[in-house]
Design a protein that fits this description.
Two copies of one chain form a homodimer.
Chain A (H helix, E strand, L loop, with lengths): L20 H8 L3 E5 L2 E4 L1 H19 L4 E2 L5 E3 H7 L1 H4 L5 E4 L5 E4 L4 H9 L10 E10 L14 E11 L2 H21 L4 E5 L9 E8 L5 E6 L14 H12 L3 E3 L5 H7 L5 E16 L9 E3 L5 E3 L1 E8 H12 E2 L2 E2 L10 E5 L7 H15 L4 E3 L6 H11 L3 E5 L7 E6 L4 E5 H9 L1
Parallel strand pairs in A: 3-7, 19-20, 19-21
Antiparallel strand pairs in A: 1-2, 4-6, 5-6, 7-8, 8-16, 9-10, 10-13, 11-12, 11-13, 13-16, 14-15, 17-18, 21-22, 22-23
Helix pairs in contact in A: 1-9, 2-6, 2-9, 6-7
Chain lengths: 437, 437
């Protein structure tokens, strides 16, 4: 893509309400545009990042045999009355009357709807276990939406639901998802810590939040830094290995302020291993047994023919929120550096453009064509602007690799630079292989 | 995927309201489940088909340099008051009050919102032309939703918007999109005819519908069948070629009953070239100039510095509706045959399973592994059921190719069958190359 053609409207005057750096950066680089309070359009740059995150989330769900489907955004109130949450949910639920006066709502979460799908479909233990998921827009009518996409009203989320015959089987599904989440965040280039959590309005008796470290985060967190030394690649998707993984992670202290206990923290973690920082919740998983299946009469025949309530868990990842979280974690000292797996482009070519001399632009166009042929997603900055402005701009856009075609480039060698590192003069062949690593 | 693990709940008792064959088939093969009147969940089989359609639509939009973004589902009423459509739109618009009493709505279309995005972003003719698109859920509060996903309330749609400086430039964008639509439908394996159309509530003075032939369609259509002999591959994406394409298509009579003229039809089309059948609208494109940009004050500086209202068009494809339309066009005599490009799986392996002899199942599993390695998306029917039932079931599921492992297969040869054709005995190598064609 040529930058001059990319729809990337930059906001020069930051609105006063953009208080955190992800919100500011997303406006400054034209990733999003607010359409009304807490509701955003995703412009091409932001959209590309969100889609890359979505695809990684999807692949890691598929890897544990979760099946993708899609539930609608608008739900009937009836199933929420069955579960008992319609009155409980409060004003954050966007309630709607359709033209015939029926009570509908914009789904803030989908436990009821998936239970309704499941109870009419699966009747026998033979069809279990099942994990179903979807990636869909949700709505929470926040009274004070803020922090851009981090706490907005309309947000994009992956939510999965597991169905098992027994609590013991359900815990296996829970562990599989736990593992899948850690792998997902690792692929996204983010350090996430699982923390035992309260279950809140979802309910149940077992729950973990996944928190990304970021100094601007909303939650205070306390952890043993050795938790980051655990190597995910040593676990396999077997029952015993995943059970070991859960044990290994729970060996290291980690808590949000909700559950923090100063004495226990100091007793169990040496001073120099203690992390006290802030974090952002990007995932939350729950086991809640028959909390929904029982009132909603979602029954399964067990081996003896007895009808029992299916045991369920639910598992969320905030896909749109992760875009903001990735910025909070990777934007420092006026330089944003996207993790390679979710960068909007793989590399940007920055030619020094001179009105009387188009040599650099022509060289840049040649490189562009070469890289395109290799399926490298490349941005060419063909805007007529001085180099110092260009560099400042690309420090914000955050594409991790740059090819600079200017005074330092030689006949067949170009400056190649990873953000936050020094540049080196490399041939195009060498650049290609670096990018393909 | 193993069929026994696929979440594919079959509905045995068809609801009385399932009157057309796509609605019936989608329920019978567990592609969708109704959650409330006119609102559906997409189960894994239906979801896969819809995603394949979405991806083809996306690729053909990208091919004409349209840029993908995403607008939210919930919009403020304010922009609709600016354009004047808030009162006009009637009860099909799902109107919502948020917790603070603000008037919101679930977008039935996005002309207002995209104009709002555009006017705050682009100020100069230098940034034109632009085409932006998104693929997003829309809502129309139909008084009588029917025909399954063909006329439902919550539906998935690609809508694109073009922005040009002059009417002449805008017509070029229109022609590019016209071309892109024809290529899209061709890749989807569907025969679509463009027809001059009325502009309805979108407005404007130039409009085409794209109609798929299907005897169960909702619109009566009249066309010259030679329109199908036009070869898309002979046109290029240049102004003159696309202008020629428009001329060539308009040389052949085609009209819905809305615009039909019996005398003109008989005068311009020989009897044996006349098609009188029904059709389904799957796309609609509009040029409407400054209908939105003028009242919404979306101004662009032209070369002389004069501010003029940008010239716009909008272009829709019903992605969820296309799933139903593809069934209407390809489901005959109790056999569904998905076009290869949008089939939920590339091929199904059907072993004859005998309780005392697992040989066929084991052979089938070997073939399954081999095909997976080649990135062929394969379904293995491991359900313990007699072959006659299996064949009936797969006639409905509609995967175009079958590998049958049963009495006719030899040591290294298996029955390979394209639906609606005769089977042949082929080696696995030959089967692989057939599937890769």
């Amino acid at each position: 893509m040529y930058l001059s053609q990319l729809f990337i409207p930059v906001t020069k005057d930051l609105p006063a309400e953009a208080k955190i750096k992800s919100h500011q950066l997303m406006l400054r680089t034209g990733m999003i545009k607010q359409s009304s309070a807490g509701i955003y359009s995703w412009l091409p740059l932001g959209f590309k990042v969100m889609k890359k995150i979505e695809q990684i989330v999807r692949e890691e769900q598929n890897a544990i045999d979760a099946q993708e489907m899609l539930m609608p955004t608008i739900q009937s109130s009836e199933i929420w009355k069955e579960s008992g949450r319609y009155d409980d949910y409060g004003e954050e639920m966007l309630r709607i009357k359709d033209r015939q006066g029926r009570e509908m709502l914009y789904g803030p979460t989908n436990e009821e709807l998936i239970t309704d799908v499941f109870r009419s479909s699966i009747k026998s233990y033979k069809s279990l276990p099942q994990i179903l998921y979807h990636i869909q827009w949700k709505f929470r009518d926040e009274i004070r939406p803020r922090f851009g996409v981090m706490r907005c009203k309309e947000f994009y989320m992956k939510d999965a639901y597991s169905f098992d015959l027994t609590e013991n089987e359900a815990k296996k599904s829970y562990n599989k998802m736990f593992f899948s989440y850690l792998k997902t965040f690792e692929r996204l280039g983010l350090k996430a810590i699982p923390m035992a959590a309260d279950t809140g309005p979802i309910g149940g008796d077992l729950s973990h939040e996944f928190i990304i470290l970021a100094e601007t985060g909303e939650s205070q967190i306390y952890a043993d830094k050795r938790i980051f030394q655990l190597d995910l690649s040593k676990y396999e998707s077997t029952e015993s290995s995943l059970s070991q993984m859960r044990k290994d992670f729970s060996n290291f202290y980690s808590a949000t302020d909700e559950k923090f206990d100063e004495t226990k923290f100091n007793e169990s973690v040496e001073k120099n291993n203690q992390i006290r920082t802030k974090g952002i919740e990007v995932g939350h998983i729950f086991y809640f047994g028959d909390k929904y299946s029982k009132p909603m009469n979602c029954l399964i025949d067990d081996k003896s023919g007895k009808k029992i309530s299916v045991k369920m868990g639910s598992y969320g990842i905030g896909v749109s929120r992760l875009v903001g979280a990735a910025i909070e974690a990777n934007y420092n000292n006026d330089v944003m550096q996207w993790p390679k797996s979710i960068s909007p482009f793989d590399v940007v070519i920055i030619p020094s453009i001179n009105k009387n001399n188009k040599d650099n632009l022509q060289k840049a166009e040649k490189i562009y064509q070469e890289l395109k042929k290799q399926n490298i997603d490349v941005l060419l900055d063909d805007v007529d602007e001085n180099m110092s402005n260009k560099f400042k701009k690309h420090d914000l856009i955050g594409i991790p690799f740059q090819i600079i075609v200017g005074s330092k480039s030689e006949e067949n060698k170009f400056e190649f630079k990873e953000l936050n590192s020094k540049s080196e003069l490399l041939s195009l062949e060498n650049i290609k292989s670096k990018l393909k690593e």
